[in-house]
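Hi support team,

I submitted a single chain yesterday and got back a structure, but I'm not sure I'm reading the token output correctly. Could someone confirm the output below corresponds to the sequence I sent? I've pasted both exactly as they appear in my results page.

Thanks,
R.
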Amino acid sequence: MTFAVPIRMSRFSISLFLLMAPFIHAQHQGQVDFTQAKALIAPDPQNREIRGTVSYRFEVLQTVDSVFLDAKRMAFPSVLLNSKEVEHRNDGNRIVIKENFKKGESHRLTLEYVAHPKQTVYFIGWDDVDPDNNQIWTQGQGKYTSHWLPSFDNMNEKVAFDLNISFDKSYTVIANGKLLETVSQEPGTLVWRFDMQKPMSSYLLAFAIGNYRKCNLTSTSGIPIENYYYPRDSSRTEPTYRHTKKIFDFLEAEIGVPYPWQNYKQVPVKDFLYAGMENTGTTIFSDGYVIDSTAFVDKNYVNVNAHELAHQWFGNMVTEVDGNHHWLHEGFATYYAYLAEREIFGADYFHWKLYRSLEQLQAKMDKGEGQSLLDPKASSLVFYEKGALALYALEQQIGRTVFRQGVRSYLTKYRFKNVTVQHFLDEMEQAAGKDLSHYRKEWLTSTEIPTASIKENLAKGSPSLRQLFEMEKELKDAPIKDIDYLHYWKSTPSIHLKKYMIGHFHKAFSAELVALAFDSDSLAVRQALSQVDSIRSFPKKKFESLLDDTSYLTLENALFQLWVAYPEDRTRYLDKTKGIVGLPNKNVRLLWLTLAVLTRGYDDAGTKRYFDELSGYTHTRYSMEVRQTAFQYLNEAFGLTEQNLLDLVQATDHHSWQFKKFARNLLDQLLRDAVYKERIKGLVPKLNPQEKKYIQGKIN
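Hi R., thanks for writing in. Yes, this is the structure output for that exact sequence:
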């Protein structure tokens, strides 16, 4: 296993290094204005720590007796103010520097520190036998960069950060900004020097380290775009990053404001906490989106790609003051991603996306769970989807030309500043020449949604949605079986309406319409057929033809449905799908292994091998999606081996809260079984101290 060499830097070498580049001044408001930071860090995966130093330049705008930085679980061997030791206090959350700071003064604060981050920095794969799995990456969404760098748990403090990272030269190091150079420091170690020219909130600071290669693009405006990938995934770069340049060029043109940063990078990582994160100029995203061409129809990166790129303007360049204004980040990124998808996939796709958002929100409102866009505790559904619909409604109300003019004015006026919703509305009112207080009340402060007006606008933009709404009117007056679905099917080219009809009304389809559906040349339409729950109402041969489709979701659905419905043909279905892995989460392979073991008489000589492969997928070397599915299949069909139980206990402390919750819930379920409880008790001597404490607490 290859590890980075831990570096402990002397104060002398640190000071020299931090003086290698000039400080950049940026305007900001407050008592003290931190304007520029230069950091040198050395991540140590063996000890799960960060050693480093950071030097801040700040201006005193009003006389104060102290300044502070947020710093979680850090030790400070040295704290220098203007190169001299200074009195300070460290309470484990903040470091406070006591001094008489007078208005008009300029200072440099240099901190040498050691951090032991409990979150925000993730050391992935360093316990595996395969060094290709080794990664380190950050996720500081909101205010968490202070777990690895003394910084600011406040989006209103914007600083131009220059990161310099010391690490094993056999890895690739990626961070915000332009890579100026790599410098040899010690045998086997390089320092990567990154330059940022514009200020940003510290939660957007990021780095990723791993085994990567990259492919390069250049936007029409000349911005370098670096798309990273694992060496084994060279054939997947095109489908993964498909449409990237088109998305970039479209957003620059549509927004009307030049991309604000020096370059743009996209980096896949294992077991990321979210789909993606829009760190300034450096999006980190889940490697579950690294796909081959077959998977593109099932699960592609296009929306996440566009969403995180849109954030480079909405959230990164112009940043909310606080969570009361979160719509200005997520609603805007969601809407502009939908606009980019409209450019790629067409207007029908765009309008159906908005309609599905409306359906989800309406379901919440029907349960009395509606929320305001100005509620800082609103759900993601509200900030993202209601936020996008609110922008769509505003554009429809004031017109596309005026809408674009107002957005341009808003972004230009508040470039690299912090904003409120009212700042945005003021610019839109000025552009439109009209009062928008009714819009604010209807869309931003209300917990409801004006569903009727949205559906009216959607119908104007989408003939297929207009047909759907006509069908819904018919359904109010006639039974489902009496609707002429064949007429609607033949009169629309929309795959979205056809998918909707299959999902909601397939049981009422005539034989002619069923035949038309299966004869469709649309993989998406046929995929919808694979998801129905009553396949015996369909011709067997027609349904079996789905096993020939180039869609991993269709194959997974069809294999399971056919295996259940026609036991006499299970061997044939398994033979036909043998060797197919599927999506990055191995959806087809995991199902196939389970069914192969369960099928009596199927390849008896291979049964143990199939079970061992399935059982092995709970190991930490695999992604959490693969592990979770393997745990589910094993638990439901066979039971868990001792190694599976050890893997499950390990998963109860996984860094992803979703996977951790799954593992803990499954463990609770197993502990209710007397046999499993005794087996788990027997594992305690094999557990590490943290795992042992958790399990003993559960048992006792």
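A quick pointer for reading it: The radius of gyration is 28 Å. Let us know if anything else looks off.

Best,
Support desk
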